[in-house]
Amino acid sequence: MALPPLQNRPCGGRYGDIVQAIGNTPLVELKRLSPKPGVRIWAKMESHNPTGSVKDRVARALIEDAEEKGLIKPGMTILEPTSGNTGIALAMIARRKGYPLKVVMPDNVTPERTQLLKMYGAQIVSSPGSQGSNGAVAMALEMAEADASYYMPYQYGNPANPRAHYEGTAPEILEELDGQIAAFVAGLGTGGTLMGNGRRFKEELGDAVKIVAAEPMQGEPVQGLRSLDDGFIPPIIDLSVLDRKIFVTNRDAIVWTRRLLDEEGIFAGVSSGAIASIAVRIAGELDEGNVVFIVCDDGWKYLSSGIYTLPVDEVENLDSTVWWCRRRSCRRPHPPNETLTPTHTDLRETAPMPGIGFPELLVILVIALIVLGPKRLPEAGRALGKGMREFKDSISGVSDDRDERPAIKSE
Asked: Is 44 among the catalytic positions?
């Protein structure tokens, strides 16, 4: 029996080298995850890029932009902080183009990432693992300021990052879906994917499309994503592009990463699970239309973590070898010329401690009553109420009062 003809325009083609093959990734419908017949969920498979992640697009854009502007001069070394994907993509492209590359990376990342960087010829400078990606960025900034022989693309503040998606990812999605997009969901990391795609979709479709960010709750170590409430907003992020910002937990990310694999056969990294959970939620709110989300990378870099085989509760308890460091000492210093919005001041000293649950809150309340006395009972009650709300948020992955900016709906 003959197979029915494909109802799409398959990506692919012939390219002169591997760098040219970046992009044109498949758009795959996930029928088993769709909550309604009239709503279609599509995964943009950025894991199909040459090094297995969306960062191939960004790395190519960063280097080609620097070449066009004459910023990489003979004898210079490209320097970039990374937790994995950007560094690996830069290493592949830099080797093809003949540029030396040095990456600053926490010393406790999964061994797959270190091996891939070495395989592509990158030199690795280790930053303290206890400081997470924030420490890597701080160290790289210091190195770049002290030595003029380094060129640092700095993906967090380089407009070439979102432009890679504005000129590449977004047009591909628009073409494949004939401009019919009800919602686009991506994760908050550097902000490049959200900003580049979001701007292009808004220009083409206006208010007919909703741009939704998946953001970790403050203190939640979701690999590849970051909470703006940790006190740092990458300079390339323009929050007015977003229509909604929905919080996710580490458990959300792990559970949905496993669901992508078990139900749809998609072997993806952890941030893709977090994003997928929000995409399915958005799909449940629609009566019809296309919901598109980004599969940021594949799962090969995370195999040693056990997230695909261990019980979910065991994975949640893994230390910072896999996830960003949660301690307040790990918050990244603000880079030069960074401007924070009034509602996102430095929260490093006020960040909630991890591991505080409902039983602990009750103990705290009892102690407060003993110390404060009955006259201050209302104050203690209000404290308990706030704690209960925060606890509810922590298990639901959604908050409706953590962001006071009127331009964006935060949930």
From this structure: no
For the record, the structure tokens of 21 come out as 């093959």
pTM of this structure: 0.77
CB 181 within 8 A of CB 209: yes
User: What is the rounded (10 degree) CA torsion for 236, 238, 243, 248?
Assistant: 50
Enclosing H/E stretch for 256:
helix 250-264
Longest dimension (CA), the chain: 81
- Catalytic pick among 44, 55, 210, 245: 55
The answer to whether residues 47 and 53 touch, using CB atoms and an 8 Å cutoff, is yes
Closest CA to 19 of 157, 164, 158: 164
In 129-211, alpha helices (H): 132-146, 160-164, 170-176, 192-205
- Phi (first) and psi of residue 370, to 5 degrees: -65, -45
Helices (H) and strands (E) in the chain, counts: 12, 11
* Given 271, 277, 305, 410, the catalytic residue: 271
Q: Report whether 54 contacts 296 (CB < 8 A).
A: yes
Angle between helices 85-97 and 111-119 (to 10 degrees): 10
Q: Beta-carbon neighbour count of residue 12 at 10 Å? A: 9
Cβ–Cβ < 8 Å for 104, 26? no
Active site residue 271: yes
* Euclidean distance between CA atoms 94 and 112, whole angstroms: 19
CA dist 149 and 72 (Å) reads 9
- The β-bridge partners of 213 are 186, 245
Q: Residues 180-229: pLDDT tens digits?
A: 999 999 999 889 999 999 999 999 999 999 999 999 988 777 878 888 87
Q: Give the Cβ contact number of residue 111 at 10 Å.
A: 11
192 vs 120: CA distance, rounded Å: 24
d(CA 177, CA 208): 14
What is the chain's alpha carbon radius of gyration, rounded to the nearest angstrom? Answer: 22
pLDDT tens by residue, 143-194: 999 999 999 999 999 999 999 999 999 999 999 999 999 999 999 988 999 9
Residue 16 burial (10 A CB sphere; 0-12, 13-18, 19+): exposed
Cα distance from N-terminal residue to C-terminal residue, the chain: 49
Please give the Cα distance from 237 to 243 (Å, whole number). 13
Q: Could you write out the DSSP letters of every residue in 83-129?
A: SSHHHHHHHHHHHHHT--EEEEEETTS-HHHHHHHHHTT-EEEEEPG
